[in-house]
Amino acid sequence: MKKETMDNIKEIKNRKLTGTVVSDRMDKTRVVAVERLTKHARYQKFFKITKRFKAHDEKNEFHTGDIVVMQETRPLSRDKRWEIVQIIQKGKEKNDESETEEQTNL
């Protein structure tokens, strides 16, 4: 019976979520927003719930707008329990946006 509970703990530790990086201002930490659909119990309508997680990014390589996969890990700080594993889609570069704004102002 103890083996079953240990297997359950291992499964929980390997949870993976997909989300969008919404903040990259902290050093080695990114804030990732994960959206999910939930059905209302009475009205049977689906609505979005967004939850924000702080995730570890050792090399500071992920930026705002990137769609990433993060995996649950041991507690790294008071708020961080996730680390970013891979990138699915790259977001828009901030430098490109500022250059286009400068060109339109000329």
Structure, explained:
The chain has a single domain (13-105), classed as OB fold (Dihydrolipoamide Acetyltransferase, E2P), CATH 2.40.50.140. By secondary structure, the chain is of the alpha+beta class. A five-stranded mixed β-barrel has the order 1-2-3-5-4. It is built from two helices and five strands; from the N terminus they run H-E-E-E-E-E-H. The model has no long low-confidence stretch (mean pLDDT 87). Helices cover 23% and strands 42% of the residues. Strand 2 and strand 3 (46-56) form a beta hairpin.
Features:
106 residues; OB fold (Dihydrolipoamide Acetyltransferase, E2P); flat; single chain
Could you please say which CATH topology applies here?
OB fold (Dihydrolipoamide Acetyltransferase, E2P)
Distance between the termini: 72 Å
What's the order of the H and E elements?
Answer: HEEEEEH
The side-by-side strand order for the widest beta sheet comes to 1-2-3-5-4
- Write out the CATH superfamily name: Nucleic acid-binding proteins
Major β-sheet, in short? 5 strands, mixed, barrel
Subunit arrangement of the protein: single chain
Which spans have pLDDT < 50 for at least 5 consecutive residues?
none
Q: What integer is the average pLDDT?
A: 87
